[in-house]
Amino acid sequence: MDGISYQHQPTNADIEQSRERAIAQLRETYGLTRQEARIGTLVGEGHVIRDAARDLGIQESTARWHLKNVFSKLDIHRQVELVRLIMHAEAR
């Protein structure tokens, strides 16, 4: 070998599969609706609410409503707490 190590770069399919695992886990563990879990996952991955809403084809106000429900159901108060939960869920 040439002494160079190569890391696997995640593909879009890898990312989507990881996201779907997180969505399923959030729904099962916390009783989130699919839309709440999708918004929570996107925001937890670092997407701004406006972009997450656009990606899901919903109004920003609707996305904010779902995110408010996510925070309530998960009993969290800050986005960093959501990020930790999503990272943990996606790692499984």
UniProtKB/TrEMBL annotation:
Kindly indicate where the leader peptide sits in this chain.
none
- One GO molecular-function annotation for this sequence? DNA binding
SMART domains in the cross-refs: HTH_LUXR
Superkingdom field = Bacteria
Q: Mind listing the UniProt keywords for this protein, alphabetically?
A: DNA-binding
Q: Which InterPro entries match?
A: Sig_transdc_resp-reg_C-effctor, Tscrpt_reg_LuxR_C, WalR-like, WH-like_DNA-bd_sf
Q: Name one GO biological process term.
A: regulation of DNA-templated transcription
The segment(s) forming the HTH luxR-type domain are: 29-86
Q: What is this protein called?
A: Regulatory protein, luxR family
